[in-house]
Design brief:
Elements (H helix, E strand, L loop, with lengths): L11 E7 L8 E7 L17 H14 L2 E7 L1 H7 L1 H14 L7 E5 L11 E4 L7 H22 L7 H4 L5 H10 L14 H7 L1
Length: 200
């Protein structure tokens, strides 16, 4: 069972991102403030859950959270400022749109930038330790998956509906065969070196 909060005496927001390692599409981030009486045995790091479990938890989180927000930074901005800065920017944008101002922020991972004057703590593998971060990981992941399914209809050859833009061999092969789209991150290594040798 995950811990509810790190600081039990404050309004605490958990933050996480999804899509950092993808070759295409935006990076998404979510911020979630849960009530002090929140409890759900299924809640866990989104990567430990099935797609069905994430989809089951998403409306529960959105209905029961005191406040939640999801934001994105697109692939062009990722190319301009790099993926780490884009991930942090997406978290800041999510925090900007929360209906309740947090007094403390906990973030999955080990890097963050000060958000206004609010104290924060980075927690490695925090999405497997704290409910608000796990909830944020689920919202970021499900909202991003939904977006990738939408743009899959525009470019079905890359099968983003299934791979969600991650660097699968199928996705890399499609890039070789079909070229890059306006959704691809041009600053990333889009084609495997072995493909470059083969197709150059």
């Amino acid at each position: 069972m995950l811990e509810l909060k790190y600081k039990t005496d404050s309004i605490e927001a958990g933050c996480d991102e999804a899509g950092r390692g993808c070759l295409a599409g935006p990076v998404f981030a979510a911020a979630v403030i849960l009530p002090d009486n929140f409890s759900n045995r299924l809640l866990n790091d989104s990567k430990q859950l099935t797609e069905k479990q994430r989809e089951k938890l998403r409306p529960i989180i959105e209905q029961e959270a005191l406040a939640w927000a999801v934001a994105q930074v697109d692939n062009h901005e990722i190319d301009r400022i790099n993926i780490l800065n884009a991930s942090i920017l997406a978290m800041h944008k999510a925090l900007d749109t929360l209906s309740l101002r947090p007094e403390h922020i906990i973030i999955d991972g080990n890097r963050f930038k000060q958000y206004h004057e609010i104290p924060y703590l980075c927690i490695v593998k925090g999405d497997g330790k704290y409910m608000s971060i796990a909830a944020a990981s689920i919202l970021a992941k499900t909202h991003r998956d939904e977006y990738m399914q939408k743009i899959h209809r525009e470019y079905p050859g890359y099968n983003w509906q299934k791979n969600k833009g991650y660097p699968t061999s199928e996705h890399r092969n499609a890039i070789v065969q079909l070229g890059i789209t306006d959704y691809h991150r041009s600053s990333f290594n889009l084609i495997d070196k072995q493909y470059k040798l083969e197709f150059d």
